[in-house]
Amino acid sequence: MKGMLGRIVGMASVLALSANMAAAEGKLSLYNWGEYINPEIVDEFSKEYGVEVTLDTYSTNEEMLARIQAGASGYDLVWPSVHMHDIMQQLGLLQPANPNQMPGWENIDKAALRSHEDPNGDYCLPYAWGAVGVLYNKTLIPELTSWKQFFEYAKANPGKVTMLDDLRETLGVGLIMTGASVNSRDPDEVAKAEAYIMEQKPNIGAFRYDVIPLVTAGDVAAGHYYVGGVLNVLQNPELLGFVIPEEGATMYQEDVCLLANAPNPDNAKLFLQFLMRPEVAARNSERLTNGVVNTAAVDLLPDALKSNPSINPTAEVRAKLQIFEDLGKDLRLYTRAWDRIKTN
Amino acid sequence: MFRGFKTFRLWPTLFNAYGFLFLAFLYLPLGLILLYSFNANPINMAVWTGFTLDWYATIFGGAGVKGSFDAAFTEAPERIFAVVKNSFLVAVSAATISTVIGTVTAIALARYRFVGKRFYQALLILPMLVPDIVLGIALLVFFVGAGFQLSLLTIIIGHVTFLSSYVFVVVSTRLAGMDTTLEQASADLGAGPLTTFRRVTLPQIMPGVVGGFLLAFIISLDDVVITYFIAGVGSQTLPLFILAMMRRGLRPQITALAVLIILFSFVVATVGLLLRNRKP
Amino acid sequence: MIAGDTVRSRRRRALLLLLAPVTLLLGVFFLVPLGIMVVYSVLEPGLYGGVEWTWYPFNYGRILGWPLNDYEEFDPIYLSIFLGSLKIACLTVLFSLLICYPAAFWVSRMGERRKNFVLFLITLPFFANLLVRIYAWLLLLRPTGFINTLLQGLGLIAQPLDMLFTSFAVVLGMVYIFTPFMFLPIYANVEKLDYSLVRASQDLGATPLQTFLRVILPLTAPGIVGGSIIVFIPALGNFIVPAFLGGSKVQMTGNLIERSFLQSRDWPFGAALALLIMASVVLVLMIQLTRAARTQTKGAV
């Protein structure tokens, strides 16, 4: 039986291997968040360098990590958030792509080198950053400025707001509202944040990511959402609004990283170089409506983006944004709090 | 008909009315998708603002839909074709392999007597009874542990494990209703087992085999949960693609794609059911 | 040929050949994976997914009450999620039964051709993609969806009803998805119903209700039980329906399992939960099998 199993496994890996070898010529595999790159840019790269690019998507850092660990090893580039970048580097899943040796690096905002493990940009290229705020429907809420107002509206109109189905983001709001750090490892602080969200839960319609259509159609009045929602605000300024609540908010940043077992490292490096071109970065940001890490690209942005307080917040607002760090084993404090919130 | 029915003459009418409600319950939601897929309103599908074929056009590479709030991220048609191709590759391979395995097993269990037959019968039913999520994560854990790369190949293997059982059941039913005297006669006339199988058994069970294949094909094509756990690089299938789209929000483009999928499944299923219902 | 090569041994070899593929397939890709999952469920979770190879019974402890008490304190919520899933699965069974039972009688009274056609119509939606069918209910139930728009248009309600993202929506969605599973076993039984027994009961002066409870119901019980089991099993482990129609607010064990694997990086805990579901399934099947065996022996007497 065991010999048989070995033979089957062997056969299968030969098959898988040959499939990979066929893939090694002029190809590039990207594994990115859904809707987190301007498809035109991918096309353009593909045409310019004659490289066939495939793009798969994920919806959480953990899903991506789980799949990479589960042997999804045909990808070249991934887009982890900064804390996941640290984890992946520690786990040996990444290899240095040396973006800091490439032309164009001088344009990268050095403040965006937020990774603890990779302070000089030896491994990954900072990609984009943004705040997590609230997207709202102006016909239902004319103006929204704070979490307090968000929850008060929910209390008066139960079920008409949504929050993200993400334990750290949503508990993060609880931590901000109870005056703690979003990276707190103190069980009491996490418990307080849990209690805060629990108190709001009856008024929250759902924990979801698919907020844009719900808010646009008016199914819900407001939804906890990423700054990327500003794209829809700009297309529909009468109807939609996006705000970074004045109490503060979480922020995220993704870096583009080269996987240790990437089949096409050379094409991947070409792609990183391509992303650093100011006009490419600018066009990407236009579509993503995220914060820009490329200083040369800022000047190329349309005014609507440059002057948008959510995309390009003032120093005062920026000071209130907190970024997630890896919590190691203490993540379980959050997992359990989140299990309770979703159940009770 | 029993007397209770006769004394209350409204019974048949009531039953018929109920029956139509039952069918309406089954079909109205699907009909609604069909209707919405032609609605031009990009913001609220429930409000009719005019007839359009734009949503279908975007699937086949027509121009981006103007005025749609999510036109920016309408999926590229090449992407849709790629996942459709993956889905078909998986469904055809998985259905073919499981048809062979299921048929061969059905013959073994129907035509031979041996110790452990009951064990095999139980074992073959089990994959259909294990909840999808349990099978999905068990396979994930196994593939990772055994060093398999998650790929289309792992999806095919995963599908074959439970599809073989479906084919087995369909072919077994056919075999049970079959007359064995012909096989006997063929053997008596000196034909080898292979010849008997090819010339006598196979033609008789063919509708069952083809029906089983189509059933396996369509289940494989539709599978979400197990595929979700064992899909790897570049091996996104159509259901996973729709899952990802649905997570990002309800859009008219999904509605159009849904209509095409329903139509295709219905055609395949119709052929399959017709074959299965043909009397042996 | 040597003397040992009798017809019998040739048949034996043919049998081995015929059984080899399925043995390999289910042995390697079904029984072994289930076995590995059992092993994983008693190992320590790795910090970033995967497992540490140390004996660690606290995954079950966390659910059932003997925690390690560092991070894994006992919390009854996991049992309550499980009980909640049981409840939703049972409600799904109950409502599909109520819907399908009369429908089975309706179909069984038809003429041959019409019957075949209606049976075909009832089976067909089963082949439409699961996600597509769930999607249809999202469109129907959302606050700006078909039902609310219709009711508001008719002036029956002023405010949209909150139907989406509730347990109601989850049960409704599952009933919809599993209707063919419930219908077919019941129908198979109802079609074989011996009406002479029904007539006899009425001739003996039983009221329609008595006839139904004492004669029709017991005679169709096997179909009811069969259908219930086939619906109960996938309903219990479901995670797609609650994820979409429950708005991630209605939790079932399936959602917890998915989150353990793909979000909170706790594979062993997910494996333990999956085995809990598996255990309930096996329990239900065993009850059914012993019951069936008992009725069989009774019938033989």
TrEMBL record, chain A:
Keywords: Periplasm, Signal, Transport
Name of the protein described by the UniProt record: Putrescine-binding periplasmic protein
Signal sequence residues: 1-24
Family statement: Belongs to the bacterial solute-binding protein PotD/PotF family.
Keyword Cell cycle: no
Localization, UniProt: Periplasm
The organism's place on the tree of life at top rank: Bacteria
Task performed by this protein: Required for the activity of the bacterial periplasmic transport system of putrescine.
Transmembrane portions of the chain: none
Automatic annotation (TrEMBL), chain B:
Membrane topology of the entry: Multi-pass membrane protein
Keywords, sorted A to Z: Cell membrane, Membrane, Transmembrane, Transmembrane helix, Transport
Ranges annotated as spanning the membrane: 20-38, 88-110, 122-144, 150-171, 256-275
Domain ABC transmembrane type-1: 84-272
This protein's record includes keyword Transmembrane helix: yes
Location(s) in or outside the cell: Cell membrane
CDD domains assigned: TM_PBP2 (cd06261)
InterPro entries reported in the protein's UniProt record: Bact_Polyamine_Transport, MetI-like, MetI-like_sf
Family per record: Belongs to the binding-protein-dependent transport system permease family. CysTW subfamily.
UniProt protein name: ABC transporter permease
TrEMBL record, chain C:
Keywords: Cell membrane, Membrane, Transmembrane, Transmembrane helix, Transport
Matching InterPro entries: MetI-like, MetI-like_sf
KW RNA-binding (keyword) present: no
Entry membrane topology: Multi-pass membrane protein
Domain ABC transmembrane type-1 residue range list: 82-288
Subcellular location per the Swiss-Prot or TrEMBL entry: Cell membrane
Designated name of the protein: ABC transporter permease
Native organism: Shinella pollutisoli
